[in-house]
Amino acid sequence: MDRKITKIEIVTRPSKLEDLKNALNEIGVLGMTVSQVFGCGTQGGHKEIYRGREYEITLVPKIKLETVVCEIPVEKVIETAEKVLRTGKFGDGKIFVYELSDAVRIRTGHRGAEAIMDIPGEKF
């Protein structure tokens, strides 16, 4: 049976990472990739003074959390992320959702949903 595989990217403030990671773990999302990124948008930037000169910083530090799900409902992941991240201020972030056509677990050759699911009884 083919299961839908979905990738979810969440871009938000670095200060929210631990809260987001813990909330996603609670709903069963254990695998994730986190990157430090820079971005610009409606939040804008800010000005800093370095060695007496004023500089406008237009790229703001963010984190990007990526996860792939097939068993956990996508809406549950989105709702959980929104609940943790929403402050109502500019810079709360964005969530992007992509449908994936395939996934491959390189070690075993499993494809599709089997590639991203935990294998019962197998530990690192």
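The above is record 1. Record 2 follows with the same two-line structure.
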Amino acid sequence: MKPVIPIFFAVDDNYLPYLAVSLRSLKDNMSDACACKIHILHSGIRTESAARIANLSDENFSVCFADVSDRLATLAQKLQLRDYYTCTTYYRIFIAEMFPEYDKALYLDSDTVILGDICELYNHALGDNLVGAIPDETVLDVPVFCDYVKDALGIPAERYFNAGILLMNLKKFRDENFYEKFNELLHRYKFSVAQDQDYLNVLCKDRVLYIAPEWNKMPIPANGCGIPKLIHYNLTRKPWHYPNVLYREYFWEYAEKTEFYAEIRAARDAFTDEHAKADALCEQRLVALAASEAENPANYYRTYVA
């Protein structure tokens, strides 16, 4: 019997085409040593679109959907949302409580292409760590973000992880009441820069297994080298919007293999200069917000840690 790897994604309807690309790449590059059980967390998606995603299923790669609307409703008024973020960014917090049958699982963002064998990523031994993760290359690339995580969160930039790729110790999450700790902190302090990623970094501090950077490679030209094992087109670096994104060829290779290829091409063609200006403004606001929070005398670190 092959070991079955539980893998979680979180999407809304708008992101299903890009999820399909991620799943296609994951399936094409996984080894025969394991099988995958894909759980797609959502709060309402169209049946027709879900059926097209489910077509990827076979005996070694099953896809199912889980509606988290009820659990999210209890926290929705407390969640901090910014710009393009939706409540989906918080879904990963609920995995341990919603799926008690799993002691360990992977969470992957949908704006990814997986070129390595996912079994290799899953097989990292977590020990007593809460998560396995990769330092955030975007933070390391932008001095303002480095200052923010150090001065507002109390975490050195090289130890601040990106929450888009997580190997999760779900048993430890449950044993240590992680959900209750998150809920308490959510009511006590509102992170506004990276939102759930900041909560996860604060709550998992010093309980992180740091995984090699090729498992969360971002399209930052200064950091590009060789063929990554996982590409993460995070923030506004979307190859379905911009023609010169690093590693774009891998995205389009797998996009062509999905049922959503025509829609993804249409989204690229419909992306205008005005959309690009909105992206640039979003990035400027994020940098300004990070700078402001780094200097804020009442930020999390200065209020609760220092």
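Confidence is low (pLDDT under 50) at residues 81-85.
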